[in-house]
Specification:
By secondary structure, the chain is an alpha+beta fold. It is 22% helix and 47% strand. Bound molecules: ligand 2BA (2 copies).
């Protein structure tokens, strides 16, 4: 068994969870946020049998497209007064950041 940790954008979660459960897979959803943009995202824990892993990864690829997001950073400007000039940068976000871990034991008690 593998544990798939998928960090996805909030807007993609419901579609992905629909596909996951429709396929008979199980998942746990955690509210999370990224260290860089500091905005909300969702972390899904999905324990799957090895033979279903590729299908799951395909599902994630199909439901979580990559997008560009505008982020406003405050850049210090040199001068007599300490000033910060806000400037927008475009950051690619998504599709999904996925970690696949080996599961040593899966126990239900
Ligand atoms: P955030 O940390 O909010 O990052 C959002 C996007 O900002 C990232 O998209 C990436 O394009 C950019 N970014 C992040 N850190 C950066 C940095 N130090 N310098 C320049 N650009 C940076 P993704 O790479 O698609 O990541 C989406 C979210 O997935 C991240 O949200 C974070 O929550 C998670 N993530 C990505 N890589 C991770 C990792 N190695 N470990 C744990 N979480 C990770
Ligand atoms: P359980 O199988 O006892 O699962 C309880 C909770 O444990 C799940 O909540 C989920 O958060 C987590 N979980 C279980 N197996 C997991 C796995 N392989 N990977 C990640 N997390 C896992 P819910 O998703 O709300 O499910 C509640 C109950 O509904 C489940 O109890 C199961 O009896 C049933 N169920 C869940 N998904 C199903 C599906 N795709 N088809 C049929 N029944 C499902």
């Amino acid at each position: 068994m593998k544990m798939v940790i998928a960090i996805v954008q909030d807007k993609d979660v419901s579609k992905l969870l629909q596909s996951v459960t429709r396929d008979g897979l199980r998942a746990t959803r955690l509210a999370s946020s990224g260290g860089f943009l500091r905005s909300g995202n969702t972390t899904l824990l999905i324990g799957v049998e090895v033979e279903r892993l590729e299908g799951l990864l395909l599902m994630i690829r199909e439901t979580c497209p990559q997008r560009e997001e505008m982020l406003t950073l405050a850049q210090p400007i040199m001068g007599p007064a300490d000033a910060h000039l806000p400037f927008p940068i475009e950051v690619p976000v998504g599709g999904a950041t996925v970690f696949v871990l080996d599961v040593e034991q899966f126990i239900k008690v």
